[in-house]
Amino acid sequence: MSSRRAFLKNGALALVGTATVPSFLVRSVLAEQAAAHATGKKLVVLFQRGAADGLNIVVPYREKNYYTLRPSIAIQPGEVLDLDGQFGLHPAMAPLLPLYQQGHLAVVHAVGSPDVTRSHFDAQDYMESGTPGVKGTQDGWLNRALQAERMDPKLATAFRAVALGTQVPRTLQGRLPAVAVSNLQDFSVGGRGPSASAASNAFQAMYAGTRDQILSGEGQETFEAVRMLKAADPAHYQPAPGVVYPGTPFANSLKQIAQLLKANLGVEAAFADIGDWDTHQAQGATQGRLANRLREFSQAIAAFWQDMGQDAEHITLVTMSEFGRTARQNGTGGTDHGHGNVMFVLGGGVRGGKVYGRWPGLEDAQLNEGRDLAVTTDFRQVLAEAAYSTLGARNLDAVFPGATLTPAEFLRFA
Predict the structure, then answer these.
(1) What DSSP string describes 236-274?
(2) Which pLDDT does position 185 carry in this prediction?
(3) Residues 6+ apart with CB under 8 A from 88
(4) pLDDT at position 224, please?
């Protein structure tokens, strides 16, 4: 009994504080522990919706034409947070600089989609489906990555794929069940109808209709496990000592992902997004609209990393946005829809402290269509390497059909 209690102390039941432990939950925790041991890591994907301006996020401050193209919104050499003598972070991203210096954070610049659309809707759809230029794809790349993982399906839990939001995002849609949760404290499965949350109704309907034994035969046990998560009192979750999340929806999403991961409920992939990156007007330089967004973005990620403590060593976090913005500022002090952008990869197993990717340059003749940062790294290469090294997804053709990706093309950040 004492060894059993010692085991449970480090598992999901540590949050519950009950002396009566149902056998099914013990099996659930054992399954999760085995799955975690098999893969070693969890993958967290963050989407910056609206097309973030990669050129002012990771600034190519040695490029003279950068300052010619952006006379009023450029970040000056003395203002950037230097990374490698060629690139520097926007000063509002100071919370992430230590993670880069410690070797946990990698930067991939001039990355993006081979499709040239400037439509937010189409570009987001292509990046989330993982099939640029193909509108008929029914599922998302992350759902396919989980299916391609080398894992005994009997070890899967109902929380294997989780999105923080009102609905399952395109990235996680597909054959493998995924759960969308807006707020953990509002997530309940105590019956159907108007009194139950929309998320819980969808959750029960999804598992009631499956033929998978672990999800249907033991479906009611799964619901009881969620009830026990509710009993953990998510509203009063306390982050690690000294950790302060910004009081924003995005930061709250990361805080709840941290809570789910700490609860050992079998989360393998988690997704969250943050909007308002479409800076057509009054973008600003070191201060202003973009700076405010970057400050929130960086503070939330840094808080999440610190909150996870030693468990951060088993997490890989990837950021993405549908496309970058024009190299030249427009007449209203902003930037328009562009092409090449920047992605971040954060994790305990990441070879950080480096800017990856081939830099194409910002001279007029080097710009895509004479206006954008050119793409030299396909975004699927970054996501494929993260899925390969984190989830163990070896069948990359199934994850990114038509891309013909192989490990030989990886950037080697993991």
Answers:
(1) G--PSTT----SSHHHHHHHHHHHHHHTTS---EEEEEE
(2) 76
(3) 58, 59, 61, 75, 77, 80, 81, 82
(4) 53
CATH of the domain at 241: 3.40.720
| Exposed/middle/buried for residue 89 (C-beta within 10 Å: 0-12, 13-18, 19+) | buried
DSSP characters over 25-52: HHHHHHHHHHHHHHH--EEEEEEETT--
Q: Does 215 reside within a domain?
A: yes
Distance (Å, rounded) from C-alpha 50 to C-alpha 96? 21
User: Can you give the residue range of the structural domain that contains 35?
Assistant: 18-409
Instruction: Specify the pLDDT at position 272.
Output: 98
Helix (H) or strand (E) holding 331: none
Query: Nearest to residue 294, comparing CAs of 312, 311, 319, 262?
Result: 319
> How many angstroms separate the CA atoms of 227 and 220, rounded?
11
User: What residue ranges of the chain have pLDDT lower than 70?
Assistant: 1-40, 150-155, 187-233
Position 11 in a domain = no
Q: One-letter amino acid identity for 268?
A: E
Q: What is the largest CA-CA distance in the chain?
A: 72
Q: What is the pLDDT of residues 176-212, one digit of tens each?
A: 989 888 888 776 544 344 445 565 566 566 555 555 5
What single string gives the DSSP state of each residue in 198-220? HHHHHHHHHHHT---HHHHTTHH
CB 164 within 8 A of CB 257: yes
Q: What gap in Å lies between CA 347 and CA 398, rounded to an integer?
A: 25
**What is each CA distance from 307 to 94, 192, 245, 258, in whole angstroms?**
18, 35, 9, 7
Pair 318, 43: CB distance under 8 Å: yes
pLDDT of residue 157: 73
Residue 57 lies in a domain: yes
Phi, psi of 36 (to 5 degrees): -60, -40
Q: Which among 183, 160, 215, 179 has a CA at the least distance from the CA of 43? A: 160
- Whole-angstrom Cα distance, residue 249 to residue 295? 14
**Total domains in the fold of the chain:** 1
Q: What are phi and psi of 99, to 5 degrees?
A: -65, -35
13, containing H or E segment: none
Write the single-letter amino acid at 133.
G
- Rounded to whole angstroms, how far apart are CA atoms 170 and 115? 18
Whole-number pLDDT of residue 340: 98
Domain membership flag for residue 386: yes
